[in-house]
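Project standup — Tuesday

K.O.: blocked on the structure for the chain from last sprint. Re-posting the sequence here as requested.
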Amino acid sequence: MKRRYDVAVVGAGSAGCVVASRLSEDADREVVLFEAGPDYPPASLPADLADGIHGTSTASYDWGLHGTGVAGGPPLNLPQGRVTGGSSAVNATFAVRGHPADYDGWALPGWTFADVLPSFLRLEHDLDFGSSPYHGTDGPVPIRRYLGDERSELTLAMEDAIADVGIPRIPDHNAPEAVGLSTLPVNCVRGLRVSTAQAYLDPIRSRPNLTIRASCPIADVVIRHGRAVGVRSTDGEIIAADEVIVCAGAYHSPALLIRSGIGPAADVAALGRPVTMDLPGVGKNLADHPWVAIDLPCLQPLGDPPLFQVMATARSSRRTAADPPDLQLMVCGPYPLEDGYHSLLAAALLKPASRGEARLHTLDPDAAPAIDLAYFRNPVDIDRLVEGLQLADAAAAHPHLARITRGPRLAPRQDLVADAVAVRAWIKATATTYHHPVGTCAMGTDPRAGAVVDTSGRVYGVPGLSVVDASILPEPPSANTNIPTIMVAEHIVTRRRGVEAGL
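H.V.: unblocked you, prediction finished:
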C-alpha cells in the first residue's frame, strides 16, 4: 500500500466536498478526496461551469448514465456531474430546503427539522433574509433571489397566472412551513454558479493535510477482516485509510458498495464476488422527482435573464395541511430553439410513493449501473401528478400570459389534459427526471428492514466505512436535493464531532 490517510473521501460532489473540507479543519487529520472527473481551481474554471443562469452544464462533465423511467417507456438520460463539485457544479442552482415535515417524517433520532436546522444555517449565507433566525449569515454557500429589474417579463406574467389559480404568494420558500409561490432561492451570484467545489474546496486548497486526487475513479473499497482499510482505483492502485467515506451519489454509491461485496447477498454472489456484508437495502428504495411540462412559445426576452426565477409548491388532494407539499410548479425560459423562443411551465411530483432500484450486471467499474426509477409503479403517483399538470394547465391558459407568448401552446393539447385516460397516457410517455435521485443506501435503524447506514452514516456491519450523500436520504424531500444533500454532509460531520468531544 501507498501512503496512509486518516480518511479517504470517494466523490467530490455536493456532499464529498463538504465532508473533506470540514474534516480537514482538524490539522492532525490527513484527508484524501477522490474525484473521477477533472478538478478546476478558480483560475481555470470553464465558462460553462461558471454559468449559473442558463440552466444545466452537463454537456462536457457528465457520467452518461441512462435508465428506465416508466416500465416499457423509452430510456431516459440521467445527467450526473463528473467533476469536482459533482452535480452542484452543473445544476440549475435551485437552493431550497424542503418542509419541516420532510425531516420529522423520517422518524430518526437526531434528524428532526429542529435537529437539522442548525446545519442548514451553517451551510448558507442568505443574502436576502440573513437577519431571520431561520437563516444563516456565515456559511460558505451564498443564497439569493431574483428581485427588481432582474425579473423577466415571463417571470412576472407566470407569477401572476399561478397566483390566480389559487396558489398563495409567500415571501420565502426556505421559511419553515412555507408552501406557495415566490421567487426562487438560488446559489448563483452575479450570474456565477457557486458549487460545493467553489464554496468548500477553493478557500482551503492550500491545507497541507488535504490531498485532492482528480481524474481518479475508485473501483472498490478494500476490506480486510471485515473492516474497510482503504480504496482501490480503477488502475489498481491501493490507497490505505483508517476510514473510507463514500460520497458518490445515489447511483454510484450503491454500485461501489456492491463491487466491494456489500449489498443483497444473492445479487453480490451472482456477480461472482464474495459477500462481505449482506445488506438487502443497497441499491433499493430509489426515488426521484418525475416531471412533465406545458410547452409555450414565447417572444424574445429583453436582455439575457436567468432561465429559472420563480417556483411554486402545493399539496394535492391526497395531502393534509400537516403534510409537506407534494407538487411543484417550475417556470423555465425564455430559451431559444430553431423555431424561436420557448418556455416551460412544469409540474413535478415531490413526494413519490414509487420506488425503483440501481443494480449491477457486472463488477467492471467502468460499466454503468442498471437504473430503474419505477415512475408511477404506485398508481397514486400518476393521480397526483395529473393534479399538478392541471394546475399548470389552468395557469398556462390565463390571459396574463398573452403578452409574452407568440401563439398557442405547443404541448400538450388543452383538451388532452381534461381527458382522464389520455392525460395519464401522455404523462407516462413524456415524464422525465428532475435529477433528484435519493434513497439507495438509506439511513435507518434496522438493516433487516432495508437500512444501509445508521444515523451517523456508518455502514452496518462494516467498521471504518460510511456513506454520506443523497443516497442515504430515506425519503425524498419536497425540494430540489442539492441543499438538503449539503445539509446532510454538514450534519453528519457535526454529529461525529459531538461524539468525539463526548457531548
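K.O.: great, moving the ticket to review. The first helix runs from residue 16 to 23. The two ends are 36 Å apart (CA to CA).
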